[in-house]
Amino acid sequence: MSRSALVTGGNRGIGLAIARRLAAAGDAVTVTSRSGADVPGLTVARCDVRDAAAVDAAFAVAEAAHGPVEVVVASAGITRDQLLALMSEDDFGAVIDTNLTGAYRVAKRAVRGMIRMRRGRIIFISSVVGMLGSGGQANYAASKAGLVGLARSLARELGSRNITVNVVAPGFVDTDMTAALADDKKAAILAGVPLRRCATADEVAAAVAFLASADAAYVTGAVLPVDGGLGMGH
């Protein structure tokens, strides 16, 4: 049976791969982006997750098009890298507000309908950096680590309503962002990856699709790494 699914930041990269994977499995998918630009084959809602009213409006678009949202993937995120001594409060706050508080806003809006339906899937897209840390990314790492605590708290809070809450933690993924890195920087990162390659966005999407599926009905509060072994032990 087709479910209504919403993927934030679903217009490109990992988010788009997730949206297309869910759609291929039969879900009716709405994606959000700040631009609201058309994405062929998917419903689009313009949304900045830093704005609670915009999040509410995006859910209204998804609900009007496809019914109550049963699967939510919080994928929207930004980076503003800088050494701590040079990092502005604006850059720290913007990353936390988008990556962590944005996910809170999305989850809070999602659970209204899920509690009424007594079922649902919430999946947060974190990062291996949230567990390992990364110099120059204190804001990003803090936001991604916070998603784990948020997910596990919600898993305990919502489990009796048949709502699962999980985290996917990608490692080094082949996207436009990583393609822009210098070759020596990429080589240094890959040297720490046991599989010695990047993940594809589709490999991350496959992990999300599993957690959204009936096969994962008894999985909640989990952190599923897709990192080639980079973060093992964490």
Query: What string, H for helix and E for strand, traces the elements in order?
Result: EHEEHEHEHHEHHHE
Average pLDDT metric: 95
Any idea what the CATH superfamily is called? NAD(P)-binding Rossmann-like Domain
Q: Report helical residue fraction.
A: 40-55%
The major β-sheet equals:
7 strands, parallel
Distance between the termini: 37 Å
Beta-strand segment tally = 7
Q: Which blocks of ≥5 consecutive residues have pLDDT under 50?
A: none
- Determine and state the CATH class: Alpha Beta
Structural class of the secondary structure composition? Answer: alpha/beta
What sort of overall outline do the alpha carbons produce when their principal axes are compared?
globular
Secondary-structure topology with pairs:
Layout: E1 4-8, H1 13-24, E2 28-33, E3 43-46, H2 52-66, E4 69-74, H3 89-117, E5 120-125, H4 129-132, H5 138-158, E6 163-170, H6 176-179, H7 183-190, H8 201-212, E7 223-226
Parallel strand pairs: 1-2, 1-4, 2-3, 4-5, 5-6, 6-7
Report what the structure shows:
There is one protein chain. The chain has 234 residues and is an alpha/beta fold. The chain has a single domain, classed as Rossmann fold, CATH 3.40.50. It is built from eight helices and seven strands, in the order E-H-E-E-H-E-H-E-H-H-E-H-H-H-E. It has a seven-stranded parallel β-sheet, with helices on both faces. Strand 4, helix 3 and strand 5 form a beta-alpha-beta unit. The chain is globular and about 50 Å long. The mean pLDDT is 95.
